[in-house]
Amino acid sequence: MIFILTGAGISQESGIPTFRDAGGLWEGENVEDVATPRGFARNPDRVLDFYNARRRNLLDPAVAPNAAHQALARLEAAVAARGGEVLLVTQNVDNLHERAGSKNLLHMHGEMLKARCQLCGEVMRWEGDLTRQSVCPSCAGPGRLRPHIVWFEEMPLYMPEIEQALNRCRLFVSVGTSGNVYPAAGFVSLARRAGADTLELNLERSLGASRFRDGRYGKASAIVPAWVDEVLGGQ
Ligand code: NAD
User: Fold this and answer.
1) Rounded mean pLDDT of 86-113?
2) 3-state SS of 65-105?
3) Ligand 1 nearest atom to the CA of residue 110, by list position
4) Strand, coil or helix: what is 226?
């Protein structure tokens, strides 16, 4: 099984700013204010507005999957046709992997195009703006919807499935992630301990680059398709 972890870098060329790079999404915004439960409790309008802007950006017709997203979908289909498995775990909250055709996909940090009701727990597709007046279509409770996003200090989703997959993968590949955000940054060490080979694909060496056996550096739209061609050609 091939385990692929992706981060904001894979979507950068699709027009979605990354987290910490110059010109990135969080420049000028304090993470504490817009990406923690405390920030939301303190100023819900500011947090809802921040995500409303990100959601509108994602729905811009110019934003589309790039060659890296497409290559990972192609890899999954080709490996599955040969009886193998590719699991894609993304830290991204955009929907570009599914739009490219990836199916075996876990969004560990939630999804921008979903909302969650804090009263009844229902998770629903949500493409418009979220406001404090938005009403939950499931329980009809007003004012308790929040973005379905895992904030700092919250538990990522699907952790049991992810840990199980890290234990059985033979190859762990990280694409476009800075190795700053835990627990995802620790996955490479868990996979390695379980015996997997490890590869980093990133614009430049990340903070955790030394934990990988191998690394290829450059834009995701170039290095990811090249690596996929190599894997499929060599099998
Ligand atoms: P990060 O911003 O911390 O790091 C991005 C990494 O991508 C960097 O190492 C950078 O060198 C690399 N990169 C930038 N452009 C690239 C390119 N064209 N090709 C290849 N690599 C490139 O992102 P992270 O590690 O994913 O952590 C950020 C957190 O913020 C995540 O939890 C994620 O949920 C969230 N986030 C998501 C999105 C999204 O959904 N697209 C965007 C921004 C932030």
Assistant:
1) 98
2) CCHHHHHHHHHHHHHHHCCCCEEEEECCCCCHHHHHCCCCE
3) 34
4) helix
pTM: 0.95
Mutate to test the pocket of ligand 1, among 12, 14, 19 (most ligand atoms within 8 A of CB): 19
**C-alpha span between 119 and 117 (Å, rounded):** 5
Task: Give the chain's end-to-end CA distance (angstroms, integer).
Answer: 14
Catalytic residue list contains 109: yes
**Alpha-carbon distances of 122 from 2, 95, 125, 136, 217, rounded to whole Å:** 32, 20, 10, 8, 41
- Give the pLDDT score at 17: 85
Phi then psi dihedrals of residue 26, to 5 deg: -95, 0
Our CA dihedral for 93, 97, 98, 103, rounded to 10 degrees, sits at -110
Q: How far is the CA of 143 from the centre of ligand 1 (A)?
A: 31
Q: Can you tell me which residue has the tokens 């303190």?
A: 42
Residue with tokens 């075996």: 104
What is the tens place of the pLDDT at every residue in 26-56?
656 788 888 999 999 999 999 999 999 999 9
Helix pair angle (220-233, 67-81), 10° resolution: 20
User: CA 66, 67, 69 angle in degrees (round to 5)?
Assistant: 70
Query: Which residues have a Cβ under 8 Å from the Cβ of 9 and sit 6 or more positions away?
Result: 18, 175, 176, 177, 178, 202, 203, 220
Residue 151 CA, ligand 1 centroid: distance in Å: 15
User: Is 60 exceeded by the pLDDT of residue 25?
Assistant: no
